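An instance follows:
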Amino acid sequence: MAVLISGAGSNMAALIDAAQPSDAPFEVVLVLSNKPDAGGLAVAQARGVATAVVDHRPLGKDRAAHERAVQTVLEAHGVEVVALAGYMRLLTPWLVGRWQGRMVNIHPSLLPKYPGLDTHARALAAGDAEAGCSVHLVAEGVDDGPLLGQSRVPVLPDDTPASLAQRVLTAEHELYPRVLADFCRAGRGRTQ
């Protein structure tokens, strides 16, 4: 499995930790970031996982060139499953199609509610009684694709977007490794 990140990589760290037991159904062989200064790269290196950077900035708006470079790195590491964990890039149909049924994402809302950004503020503004996170197969739409699992947390009366985000993040760290383990045990991420 490769984990793609753009930032601190707390979900990535949870996945690496979940892969440590000898009976874990997946191994994290690569952490790839589109940002050279992503804090998660150092976290992955400290845990002994190979890292790579495919910086999108030098390529300007050429998403295809960036994704071809990402694909080359994934292939070089023998990756069978891609887990997006705070990878803040909109993917083109080309890359999504290459990983159809083998690319998974975690999103901080109870999809189909609140795809995209500012999920916690949107949940609070709507007066939702609960929030949460969703793991889904990646499809061409933003935060779209078949759901693999969800975790719910209550919205508290004094919640702010930051306090709600922290509780949802704790739920993400439990949900993502569990869902990916089930996904890999079922053999759904294997190449044919």
About this structure: The mean pLDDT is 95. The longest helix spans residues 161-185.
